[in-house]
């Protein structure tokens, strides 16, 4: 038998180590070099499509793209744009190859009122140069672990864990790890209109902090955390003072999401494991789940994620008109669905991912069919199916780019219940005094159970 010398053993071990590294790394350095060349810095196809209806990406919107008012509300860079055409029940069959089953179902459910105004496609996605630089590092270092349910070698400041994804769960991770700007405080509202259009406004104040931007959180302490959120209900009076605190972990199988709730009536802080998966959404009248926030959030472990591929679709985009402080909530909230005359859709390429509940797991949504904008990685359309395979709820994320921060966000997130004829809308900011205040100097003292109690005391 041939013996292996100590030197040969060392060389073999090194070779195997290098091989393992190349296999486990997200992409090769050669692939990562495409970022910023043939691909945008965030990983989208830089070129337009064959007929030019989707243009080439040329850098997106920059700070100052439109006037910003005294309260920090961003102006509409495309104020003068008019729809190229409007999709209605009468002509929907002409365009159904570029619409989701959920969008088509909304035309069936509301044939007289639901419409999709389609505008010129404008590829506005942009982020700071520091984010672009960091993404190239993330592309070659970040690995999916625990069957895709966690991340290894991922630095939170790098964002977009897999800018060149190879699987469905990697696309989901890009949405969850996308750049959101600096620490901020946001005021927003939620409504769940009845079938006849009547509604009650629920006002929220939300503080969001990122471990890499907090002076008292070391890299070791914050290694498995994406962000910290403290959400307080401000109105109506019957709910005011209830506060929820979430420490969002990266690998939630290894270390589940940490959540607490303060009940103003009981004046007690309790652990809140229901703030996850299909637990009820806060003050949402049963119209959404906890993981419907941000279109989808939380651990991906209850689903098998299938990457179907890319396609061109009409999706909500550049919804600055819907986001405007000139628009009132009464203008937006209508029976059955929001006022579609205020919305804007454009033709864009999306990543299509299907999530199916794993055998032995449970969730009220047995299947989620998801569509992610290739330029921003934001989730913009979701079809939710029940256990019988019936299309149940249709989610739409009316995205905008906060061009001052270089971060994507939503003017509104809607979730339509096709069976009940009702919907939930979250994230409206039109009538608040100031939607978001970035650059907050938060510390961990702001995100403890004690801070939760203090926030709720009135």
TrEMBL record:
Keywords: Signal. The keyword Signal applies. Residues 1-25 form the signal peptide. The keyword tRNA processing does not apply. It comes from the Bacteria. This is DUF1329 domain-containing protein. The lineage of its organism: Bacteria, Pseudomonadati, Pseudomonadota, Gammaproteobacteria, Pseudomonadales.
């Amino acid at each position: 038998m041939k013996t292996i010398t100590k030197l040969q053993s060392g060389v073999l071990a090194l070779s195997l180590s290098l091989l393992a590294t190349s296999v486990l790394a997200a992409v090769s350095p050669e692939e990562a070099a495409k970022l910023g060349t043939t691909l945008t810095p965030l990983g989208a196809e830089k070129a337009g499509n064959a007929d030019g209806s989707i243009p080439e990406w040329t850098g997106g919107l920059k700070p100052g793209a439109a006037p910003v008012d005294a309260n920090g509300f961003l102006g509409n860079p495309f104020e003068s744009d008019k729809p190229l055409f409007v999709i209605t029940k009468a002509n929907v069959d002409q365009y159904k190859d570029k619409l989701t089953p959920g969008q088509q179902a909304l035309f069936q459910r509301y044939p007289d009122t639901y419409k999709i105004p389609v505008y010129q496609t404008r590829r506005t996605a942009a982020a700071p140069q520091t984010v672009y630089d960091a993404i190239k590092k993330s592309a070659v270092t970040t690995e999916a672990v625990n069957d895709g349910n966690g991340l290894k070698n991922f630095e939170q400041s790098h964002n977009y864990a897999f800018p060149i994804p190879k699987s469905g769960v990697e696309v989901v991770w890009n949405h969850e790890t996308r750049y959101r700007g600096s620490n901020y405080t946001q005021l927003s509202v939620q409504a769940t209109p009845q079938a006849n259009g009547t509604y009650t406004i629920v006002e929220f104040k939300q503080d969001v902090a990122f471990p890499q931007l907090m002076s008292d959180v070391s890299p070791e302490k914050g290694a498995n955390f994406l962000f910290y959120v403290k959400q307080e209900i401000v109105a109506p009076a019957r709910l005011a003072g209830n506060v929820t605190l979430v420490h969002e972990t990266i690998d939630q199988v290894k270390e589940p999401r940490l959540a607490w709730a303060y009940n103003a009536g009981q004046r007690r802080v309790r652990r809140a494991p229901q703030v996850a998966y299909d637990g009820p959404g806060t003050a949402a009248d049963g119209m959404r789940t906890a993981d419907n926030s941000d279109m989808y959030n939380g651990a991906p472990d209850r689903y098998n994620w299938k990457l179907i591929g890319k396609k061109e679709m009409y999706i909500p985009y550049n919804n600055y008109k819907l986001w405007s402080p000139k628009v009132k909530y009464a203008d937006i909230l209508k029976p059955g669905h929001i006022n579609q005359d205020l919305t804007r859709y454009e033709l864009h390429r999306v990543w299509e991912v299907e999530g199916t509940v794993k055998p032995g797991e449970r969730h009220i949504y047995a299947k989620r069919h998801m569509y992610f904008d290739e330029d921003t990685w934001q989730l913009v359309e979701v079809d939710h199916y029940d256990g019988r395979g019936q299309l149940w709820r249709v989610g739409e994320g009316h995205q905008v780019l906060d061009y001052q921060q270089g971060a994507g966000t939503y003017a509104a997130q809607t979730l339509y219940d096709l069976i009940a004829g009702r919907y939930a809308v979250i994230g409206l900011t039109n009538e608040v005094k100031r939607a978001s205040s970035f650059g907050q100097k938060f510390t961990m003292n702001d995100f403890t159970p004690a801070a939760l109690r203090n926030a709720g005391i009135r």
